[in-house]
Write a structure and sequence with these properties.
By secondary structure, the protein is α+β, with helices and mostly antiparallel strands. It has 28 helices and 14 strands. The strands form 4 sheets. The chain has a 7-stranded mixed beta sheet. Strands 2-1-3 form a 3-stranded antiparallel beta sheet. Helix 11 packs across helix 17, helix 14 packs across helix 23 and helix 15 packs parallel to helix 24. It is elongated. The termini are far apart.
C-alpha cells in the first residue's frame, strides 16, 4: 500500500485487529488475546529478542482529518496521536481535538500542517515546543490539532507522565498500531479511571477535578487507590490558579451528571478548597414543604435542572423513561424548545456556556440561607433576604474564579430573583390568582433575558422542594406560571414585556418643562408600565397620563423604586 492509499485508509482492516501482537523492528511476529499470550508466542520464535507488545484496535472512529495529516508528513516523521482523541476512538466517539506527540520540532510541524491544510496556525507554548492548527469545515465545525514534543525521552515516557491510564494510550500513525504501556485500553473496557502514577495528583492537583469530570462524563468508576490519592492531594487545589479551577468546574457543569460530580467532590473533601461557601449548607434544616436540608436540596435542584434542560433544549424531543412530571413539562413548555435552544446557544463568554453558568447559579442560589436563618416566636424557620445576600456571595466567588463581568451580572440576576417563580406559582395554586400584566412587565423589566433562566431554575426548585411529595396541582401551577411568562416574553413582547416607546426623554422634558434628571426617567418608566398593562395605547394618552402622574407625585423626590 502506498503512503497515499494508507492516508486515505488510516485504519487498516488488519487480520490482527482486536488482538495483542508482538512486534520486532516494526514487523509482527506473534499475536494473542492478552499481552502475555503475545509475548509467550513471540518467545517461541525469537526467544533471544525483546518484542514490543501492542494492541491492534478494531475501532474505526478516528477523525477523517487524521488521514490528511498523515499524507502531509515527511516519510521519516515519528508521530503519535495521544490523549483524549485516542480514548474517544476506543469508546466509539469522534473527537475534534487532536493532540499529537513528536520527538522534536512541534511548532515547525504544526506550521507545515497548517500551510498544507490551509488552517490557522498559533504558537501555543514556546517552552514545550507546541503549535496549534485550527481547521474549520464547510459546516463551521472546528477541529483543533496540537503538536507538542514528548514529555520525556520517548513516547513511552510521555504516556507514563500523563494523568490517567485511559489517556495514556498512543496511536502510531506510521505503524497503524496502538501503544498502551499502562493497560489503558483494558481500563476503558472495564469503565475504570486509574491514575498513571502514585504522584499524579501531587504533580498537578487539578487532575482531581479532571478525574471527577471524566468519571461523570464517561460513567466510569474511580479506582480505589486513585480515589485515596485524590483525597490526600485535595488541599493542593488551593495553590492552583483560579482560571484552571474555573475551567474544570465549568466543564463539569457543562457535562453529564453534574449533580453526581458535585456530590463526588463533596465526598472527597474537595469543595472546601475550591467552593468553601458550600460547606455551610450541610445539615441546615428547612421548614415544610421542604423535604431536604439546604445541601441536599441544592444537589436535588441540579439533578432536576439537568433533566429539565435535557428535555427542553435541543432540536428534537429526547427519548427518556416515562415520567409524569417530565411529560407535563414537555406538554406545556415543549412548544418553546426551539426558543430555549436558541437561548442557550448564546454565549456571555466564548469559553463557557450559559448552561454551565445556570448550573453554577443553581449551586449557589441558596448559599446565604445559613447566615440568614432565623426562628420566629412560633418556632417557624425563615431565611429572609437570602436571595439578595446569596447574589452578593455568589458574585464574590465568581470574581475569585475570574468570571467575566457579563457572567457575574447574569449570575446575580438569577440568584437575586430566584424566588419570583415560586411566589407567583403559589399564588396561582393556593389563591387562584394568575399573573397580572403588571407582574409580567415588572419581572422582565428587572431580569431581562435572565428571566428565561429563572423559569428553568424555578421549575427545578419546585421539584427539589417537594421531592416525591410533589402533587400534580402544584407542578401544574408552576408550569402554567412559567408558560404565561414565556408566552409574553416570546410571543407578544411588544404588548407586555417591552412595548415600543410612545415618547422619549427629550419630548418629556419639553412637554412637561422638566430639567434633565432622575424624574425624567421615572416618568418614562411610569408611562411604559401603563402601556404594558394596557392603560394607554397612543401618544396622546401617554402625554395625558404624564400630566396626571406628575400631579400625583409632585411632592415625591422619587416615585419608582
Amino acid at each position: 500500500m502506498t503512503k497515499t492509499e494508507k492516508g486515505n485508509q488510516i485504519k487498516s482492516k488488519s487480520g490482527y485487529t482486536g488482538r495483542w501482537v508482538a512486534r520486532i523492528k516494526g514487523k509482527i511476529i506473534a499475536q494473542g488475546y492478552t499481552p502475555n499470550q503475545a509475548r509467550r508466542a513471540a518467545q517461541n520464535f525469537r526467544h533471544k529478542e525483546s518484542p514490543e507488545i501492542i494492541f491492534m484496535s478494531p475501532y474505526q472512529t478516528f477523525s477523517p482529518i487524521l488521514a490528511s495529516v498523515y499524507k502531509d508528513l515527511p516519510p521519516d516523521q515519528e508521530i503519535f496521536l495521544v490523549g483524549g482523541a485516542v480514548r474517544d476512538a476506543i469508546l466509539g466517539r469522534t473527537s475534534h481535538d487532536l493532540d499529537f506527540a513528536v520527538p522534536t520540532n512541534g511548532i515547525k510541524l504544526a506550521r507545515k500542517i497548517a500551510d498544507k491544510l490551509k488552517g490557522a496556525f498559533y504558537v501555543l507554548d514556546d517552552q514545550r515546543d507546541t503549535g496549534r492548527v485550527v481547521l474549520v469545515d464547510k459546516g463551521n465545525q472546528r477541529t483543533i490539532l496540537d503538536f507538542s514534543i514528548y514529555r520525556g525521552k520517548d513516547i513511552q515516557s510521555d504516556l507514563r507522565e500523563r494523568d490517567f491510564s485511559i489517556n495514556g494510550i498512543a496511536y502510531d500513525l506510521r505503524a497503524d498500531t496502538f501503544i498502551d504501556p499502562l493497560n489503558g485500553i483494558k481500563d476503558i473496557h472495564g469503565k475504570l479511571l486509574r491514575a498513571c502514577s502514585s504522584k499524579s495528583f501531587e504533580i498537578d492537583p487539578i487532575r482531581i477535578l479532571r478525574a471527577v469530570r471524566f468519571a461523570a462524563g464517561l460513567d466510569f468508576q474511580i479506582d480505589e487507590k486513585t480515589r485515596l490519592k485524590m483525597q490526600q492531594a485535595g488541599v493542593g487545589l488551593r495553590s492552583v490558579s483560579p482560571e484552571r479551577v474555573r475551567d474544570e468546574l465549568f466543564r463539569i457543569f457543562e457535562g453529564p451528571q453534574p449533580e453526581s460530580a458535585i456530590r463526588a467532590l463533596e465526598i472527597l473533601g474537595v469543595l472546601p478548597h475550591i467552593l468553601p461557601e458550600l460547606s455551610l449548607l450541610k445539615n441546615v434544616e428547612q421548614p415544610t414543604p421542604h423535604v431536604y436540608d439546604v445541601w441536599m436540596h441544592t444537589l436535588s435542584i441540579i439533578k432536576y435542572l439537568e433533566e429539565i434542560l435535557n428535555t427542553l433544549v435541543g432540536a428534537e424531543k429526547p427519548i427518556s423513561k416515562p415520567d409524569t412530571y417530565i411529560e407535563l413539562l414537555d406538554s406545556r413548555l415543549g412548544p418553546y424548545r426551539s426558543q430555549f435552544t436558541a437561548h442557550f446557544a448564546t454565549f456571555l463568554n466564548a469559553d463557557r456556556s450559559l448552561r454551565a453558568l445556570l448550573i453554577f447559579a443553581a449551586l449557589y442560589h441558596d448559599v446565604a440561607k445559613p447566615i440568614c436563618k432565623t426562628t420566629d416566636e412560633n418556632a417557624r424557620v425563615h431565611f429572609r433576604g437570602h436571595d439578595k445576600q446569596g447574589a452578593e456571595i455568589a458574585a464574590e466567588r465568581a470574581n475569585a474564579l475570574h468570571l467575566s463581568n457579563d457572567e457575574i451580572k447574569r449570575l446575580q440576576l438569577i440568584i437575586n430573583h430566584h424566588m419570583h417563580v415560586k411566589f407567583h406559582s403559589i399564588r396561582l395554586e393556593k389563591e387562584g390568582k394568575p399573573l397580572s400584566r403588571k407582574a409580567i412587565y415588572r419581572f422582565f423589566r428587572d431580569t431581562g433575558v435572565a428571566g428565561v433562566d429563572l423559569m428553568l431554575l424555578g421549575l427545578a426548585d419546585t421539584r427539589a422542594t417537594y421531592g416525591n411529595k410533589l402533587y400534580e396541582d402544584i407542578w401544574s401551577a408552576t408550569l402554567d406560571t412559567c408558560k404565561t411568562f414565556l408566552e409574553n416574553y416570546w410571543d407578544k413582547p411588544n404588548e407586555t414585556v417591552s412595548p415600543p416607546r410612545l415618547v422619549d426623554g427629550n419630548e418629556v422634558i419639553i412637554e412637561y418643562d422638566l430639567k434633565p434628571g432622575p424624574r425624567v426617567g421615572e416618568l418614562l418608566e411610569a408611562i411604559r408600565e401603563a402601556q404594558a398593562i394596557g392603560e394607554i395605547k397612543t401618544r396622546a394618552e401617554a402625554i395625558a397620563f404624564g400630566h396626571k402622574w406628575l400631579e400625583e407625585h409632585s411632592d415625591q423626590d422619587s416615585a419608582i423604586k
